Amino acid sequence: MRTKVIGWATAVTAVLTAATAWGLAVSVGVSDTALRRTRLPDGNIRDEMGARSVVATAAWGVGDGQIGVDYEGEARGPDGLAVDDAGRVYVLDSVNARILRFEQGMQDASYSLPDRSFRDIVVSRGQLAALSPHDDRRLVIFSVDSTTPVSFVSISPEVGTVRRLHVDGNDVCVEVPSPDGMAYHAVCTLQGVPYDDATQSEARSTGTPTSSGARIRARKVDENNLSVDVTSPDGKIRKLRGFSARKISAVLDVFGDNRGNTFVVYAVYADRQPASEGGGRLIVAKYSREGELLGRIQTSDSYTPEPRRKFALSESGDLYQLAPSHEGVSVFRWLLVPISDYTGE
Hints:
By secondary structure, the chain is an all-beta fold. 1% of the residues lie in helices and 46% in strands.
């Protein structure tokens, strides 16, 4: 079912850059003139190689349905994005110490956090977890049906520097840098039952867990190439390769859906712009279980403030993007569609 467009927090540019037969490659910018597009009867915007719908918008502010203005009035945030099985969108508004939930384009819940230190969220199977990774290292667990926390779980001091959250089966795991890439430590169950220090300190596979049971590792090979290893639940390893015409600066995130598709988020330098000046672009590449490149999304990374996690994946494989601008925040839902289905002018 398509989601109705409820408004734009900012004007958007979509620039066609590359595509496969099922591909999508667009750049999100600050005007609305670069790509021919058609407004569909259901209110969606369809670009030539895919469909994007706005599922939520919010202006900067501290009120209901607003996001990310701190006590000094400076626009900052948000810090994370998650999507549940029902398609409801969760945005971590850490500046205002809360998580906002949007359904059908409207805020319908607000989960209060103890302070402004939280930097990531995940949602799965009706449970919502938020991570405070620094001095007061802990998780807060909610049932999505209640704004009252189920539990507070401390992260063991035996666990190293914590970066982000992941769900591995019925466990909430933290991502920790290791000599082999990233290790994953189970802190508690999705229901908020904590593990003891010995269990938390035991590192799991260095591959990022996915809803299909596979684990993914991605790395930059050289300036223009990526290497992605996908380990299936039976231990078989598939090796994928990615190429970028622009120089790759870093691999930022990987995730997979319950159909075995793999998504890799990486950053590239902007055209003719030295790396020291920053302001490059983020690219999300989608690969099938067989290793075919199904499509790519390229987005501008020039907006400030920037969220720490710009993309989230529903368990069914729909890709969502958190897109801040100077006016506020939009959440897009991207759909890859065959070119033959395009109904543009």
